[in-house]
Structures are given as C-alpha cells and as structure tokens.
Design brief:
- It is a single chain.
- By secondary structure, the protein is an alpha/beta fold.
- It is built from two helices and 25 strands.
- Strands 1-4-7-10-13-18-21-24-25 form a nine-stranded mixed sheet. Strands 2-5-8-11-14-19-22 form a seven-stranded parallel sheet, with no helix packed on it.
- The model has no long low-confidence stretch (mean pLDDT 91).
C-alpha cells in the first residue's frame, strides 16, 4: 500500500524508476515525513514549493528561480548575488553541505548558475559561479565535485598575483552527463552531451559529445 503510494508520487514528480520491492515500509514512512517537513520549510523560508533542508543559507532570494520539485538538502549555502538569475530546473537536487558562490569579491560582480531539469549533485559540491556555470539536463554527479569558473592572472612578475585580477570564460556542461566523485572543472571547460567524467578528473578544455573523460589533466579515454 505505502510502496504503491510512494511510486505514484514519484511518477507524478517525473521520476521514471521502479521502487525496489525489498525496501521495508518503515523507510517509505521515514522518507515521506522527511519530505513533508522539507516542503513545509521551503514554504516558510522561501514562500515557494521547494524541498528545503535544515540550516540552509540562501541570500538575495528574488534573484533565484526554483522550478518544480527542487530539493536543497541540509546545510547548503546559495549566494544569489549575480548579474543573471540563478535557475534550478525541475527535479533538481543539490546535496548537503554544498556551496553556490557567485560574488566572492567586491571587485567583480558574479555571473551566476543555471542547472537544467532532472540534474542532481551529491554532497559537498562547490559551484564557483563567478564566471558563470551552465549545466544541462539529466546530469548526475557524485560528491565533492567542484566548478571554478574564473582563473587568476599571473603573467606580470612585477605584480603580486592577487593584484593582477582574474579572467572568466565560464563553464558549460551538456545534457545526459555522468560526473564521478571529486571531479574538478576549471574555467573555460565545455563538456558535450552524453559524456562520462571519471572520478577524480581535473578537467580543462573543450570536449565533444559521446566521450569518456578522465585523468589529471583530463583527456579522452574512449568514445561511447
């Protein structure tokens, strides 16, 4: 009975997987209560239908657009101060202890972050969105992922590196991409559609559709 109800709720939310029949009823009840509490918290703090975890810090809320069934887990910080609206698409999930940073220094107003529908990121993900991050639809990612969309200039040896400013090209991730745990994306990265990024990869550069990427620095390991 409970499993059937939960399956209907998932299907209504656009989730197309089938629940494992071995999962006990107690776990369904626990998850339903947790989701209800998160939903009430989202209405209370954001005045929107958002599943919001505990101890979240969300600034400049008018510049953030949460679409349907967005989940923001516990202890997430979102800096909404950016030139462009931050957009979290339908069914997006941001894991616990994650950070979205747009304007980290008063010398430069950040660009912002867009995450497409049905994309999910694990715990401790860092979105350094000062130079802009665009993430496509159906992207799944592990924990400890980091995006750094700006780079320090260092060519003038007569100046301190911290005084030479930064450059920003932004980061773009295509649709249907799987990102392994602890992958790092540097400024200027473009990842095509239908790609896999191996765990621990340090990604710098432009990569086409349908490839597996891995290594330090990352390179194409094979075509899919």
């Amino acid at each position: 009975m409970i499993q059937t109800l939960f399956q209907k709720l998932l299907n209504k939310a656009g989730k197309n997987y089938t629940i494992d029949s071995e999962i006990p009823s107690g776990l369904f009840i626990k998850n339903l209560i947790k989701r209800l509490v998160m939903l009430l918290r989202g209405y209370f703090f954001l005045y929107q239908k958002v599943f919001l975890g505990k101890n979240c810090n969300i600034s400049h809320k008018p510049n953030i657009l949460f679409r349907k069934n967005v989940t923001i887990e516990n202890d997430v910080t979102i800096d909404g101060y950016a030139k462009n609206k931050l957009i979290f698409g339908n069914n997006v999930k941001v894991g616990a202890y994650s950070l979205v940073s747009c304007t980290s220094h008063l010398s430069k107003y950040g660009v912002g972050l867009t995450i497409g529908n049905n994309s999910a990121f694990g715990r401790f993900t860092e979105f350094g969105a000062a130079g802009g991050i665009e993430i496509g639809e159906d992207v799944i990612a592990g924990s400890y992922i980091s995006f750094h969309s700006e780079n320090h200039n260092f060519s003038d040896s007569s100046l301190l590196i911290r005084d030479q400013g930064v450059t920003s090209k932004g980061i773009k991730i295509g649709n249907n991409v799987w990102i392994g745990a602890k992958a790092t994306f540097l400024d200027g990265v473009i990842i095509g559609n239908n790609c896999v990024v191996a765990a621990g990869a340090v990604v710098n550069g432009i990569f086409p559709n349908n490839v597996i990427i891995g290594g330090v620095p990352a390179k194409i390991l094979k075509e899919i």
